[in-house]
Structure formats: C-alpha cells, structure tokens
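Contributing new records

If you add data, match the layout below exactly. Sequence lines come first and carry their own label; structure lines follow with theirs. Keep one chain per record. Anything else will be rejected by the validation script.
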Amino acid sequence: MAQAYDHLSGWFERLNDDCGYEQWSQYFLSGLRALGAGKRGLEVGCGSGAFSRALARAGYEMTGCDLSAPMLSEGMRLAREEGLRIAFVQADAATLSLGKFDFLLSPNDCYNYLPPEKLPSAFRHAAASLKKGGIFWFDVSSERKLREKVADNVFADDRDEVTYLVFNHLRGDRVEMDVTLFVRRSDGAFDRYDERHTQYIHTTQALTQQLRAAGLEIVRVEGHLGEDAECSDRINLICRKP
C-alpha cells in the first residue's frame, strides 16, 4: 500500500472543492493582518499549496513545505500555472529548519499526522523558525470529530473521472484511514490506487501545554473560521513567539 498522498495528491484540491477555500483563506488573511504579522510566511504541511497561493496573491512572500514529494510537485505546477513565485521545499514538521519567518501557517490537519511523542520537537522547531513576535497558527481536527464522526465510518465521492473511498478505523489514540482511488483512463477503463493515512487524536489541553513548554504564548484558541471551539470540528491554535 502506498504512502499518504502518493496518488491522492493530484486529486486532493478537486475532491475538496466544497471545503470553502476562498472563505477559509480570507479568514487567515484577516487574522494575520489583525495580528500584525509580517509578510514572510511558511506554510507547514502545504500539500498542493492552496493557502500559499491565496496568500501569495495577497502580496505575502510564501514558502510551502511538506513531507510528500507528489504534493509538492502538484503545488509547484499549480503555482506556475497562476504565475506565482512560491518556494516549495520538502521538510518534516517534526524537524523543521528552513530559516526565520514572520509567521508559520498550517491549516487542514498537518499536526494530526504527527504522533504525540513528536509534537514537543515539532513545536520547538516551529518556535525556532519564527522571528521575535512571529505568529504560529495551526489547526487540528478535534478529538470529537475524529472519535465520533470519522472513526469507524466510510466516506465516498463518485465523479466521472475519479471515485474516492476511505475506510476509517479507530486504533486507540489514532484513526487509520485506508484510501482507494479509481481513476478513469483515456480509454474509459479505471486504474485503482490504494494508500494509508494515519491521523492522531490530540486534545486541546495537551496541545496548549506543549506549545507553552516550547516557549510560545497562546493568543487564542477558536474553532473553524472563528466559531466556538467547543462546538467545532476544527480547532485553531494561534500563538506568538515572545
């Protein structure tokens, strides 16, 4: 079975075209301006770079990093098509070392892919990657979402050119996701691709404790697009380096 995003990379944004990328990006743009963030940003776990492209269009100097080489290739292709200058670099969030930035942004579950024992290192490296006063803003899927909505459930998306299936299984502190893609070839037949994703369940309390231990100040904790964190499937943790 392939690694996460080896095959999904080319379809990820199209299969997520209902997630509200434009509104989501505006939420970050408004929030970064309100926080007085500088213009040099790093998107950690950038995937195919949807948020990096949105910030680059708004005048930010963006770098995107991800562990998945296929995702980075897709990000470079999409940025090139828009005529945007974004640097894409392969890097692990747990051992991040790409220089100093005004802000680090990491939307859409990057840190759910890190097991709990790697989070202290990840947060120390995030803090070390920020200039004084810099912003570290990331989100995770909430414990409630992963345990009650995702775990032991099946999701599907059937389109003319691709069919997406994901079978999710709760394994203690994590959810293992077996993804299958059926991709239509030019002759009308379909190729099948399988890959496995693992997302770890992190509580807000544990995350805030580890962020403070890494020397970061918690500015606020809120749900998706600023909604109440207690009722949200997605938790935003917004921090500043003193």
